[in-house]
Amino acid sequence: MTVAYGSHCCMLPAVGRRPSQVDRARRGPMRHAEKASIPSRYTVTRAGVIEMLAGRLQRGDVTPGDLLTRTLAMTREPALEAVFLELCEERADREARASAGRHRRGRPLGLLDGIPVAWKDLFDMAGLRTTAGSRLRLDSEPAREDAEAVQRLAAAGTVSVGKTNLSELAFSGLGLNPHFGTPANPWSTEQTRIPGGSSSGAAVAVATGAVPFAIGTDTSGSVRVPAAFTGLVGFKPTAGRYPQGGVYPLSRTLDRVGPLAPSVRDAFLLDQALRGRRPSSPATPALRGVRVVVPEDPVVDDADAEVRAVFTRAVEALREGGARISRMEMPSLQQARAAMRQYGSITAAEAYAFHRHALERTGRAVMDPLVVMRLYEGRNMSAADLATLHCVAGEAQRSLRHELAGALLLIPTVPCLAPLATPIAEDLDRAHRANRRVLANTVLGSFLDLPGVAIPCGLNAEHRLPVSCLLCGASGEDARVLATALAIEDALDDAGLWHSPAGRFLSEEL
Fold it and tell me: Domain Amidase, which positions (predicted)?
């Protein structure tokens, strides 16, 4: 069956009120954008984007208005036309002016004050519609107030520039969207590759340097997968670490807010702000003596050969950096995988329950066929089966904690490289298989409520595409996972394996 993703998006005009992707979606389906390119003359250092920009702002080298002007200029580039669904320029200008005043008085709110941020279009922002990437919500009422996460970063002084594209209803790991267009992976070369999803626009906005960081959501891998495919750091927290209020739901049990950023240091600072704390620069702990388990399991062994090769080099770099690497079977992973195979998906069941009325009324005619297919996978799950899945998840979480015995878990974030966009977009069955493949590892972390940091760990030899490793801990070990990820990032950098996207925000022009 063919999925009709339509024609290419039109270019944004340079002046006047620019039609948003929401406006364009009313006129018909769109396909993926033209591929963007990584500006290789710029680099991101270990210090990360946030601390670098904070220093420049505090010294007066740049102003919040300069950063906002750069972001808005980049949104006009053809390669980014499927990245932002809606801009909030008046709000951003107001926030940038307020930040500039604080900096002039020498009283910034902290490291994030004056730095632009983009939000996946699941977050309510006062005065804007929350489309969830779906035509079903084009005429929804504008939000009356900001989501709690938006409020927390606003309290830290960030400048919210707008909302980014996503897979429809956040229910795909591929990042395709036939209504608003599909953001092109900026690591694409001859042919456009998918960005990963569902936080596709957020990832591409950061990877191209349009914004220094963005906030997405992750239910089965929707932050970690696009981070892996675009060479970013993505963090999925344990349940309850960040507020979910004002975030359009997919699975109320598994939905998590999560940051996408160029470095672990940036993600660490965003973690503090999302918890309502004043961000402070982290100290990187020693890697020597840290116990890391690489499981003898399909999450490693079934990865494509080119992914395994890069991952193996990364593991050896950590060993040389002093980490104590061990391999062992992990029955908890087998238990989780078997339960999902037998009973189905918690996400599909909860998503179908939430969307079933819209789906049955008008949804099938106007929705992405891949999303429709996945929603119907949850239609026949009984309440007893759903309860059993939650019970097994709890048992497997306890087993995993016992198996790790204080160690951390390291696996490939995604078992394959970013696939080409067109073959997947034109074939529903292929898209469905690809979706299962890209989510194969991250869905286990969601089922087991494992905090996980996706960390770039090298480029494959043939296509020079990013490969990512996923560092996980037992539920609730977010702080330890983030701290250890700092040390891992440094070790990979020492070995020449850390390839952060080149951020235009670190241009000498600023």
Answer: 84-482
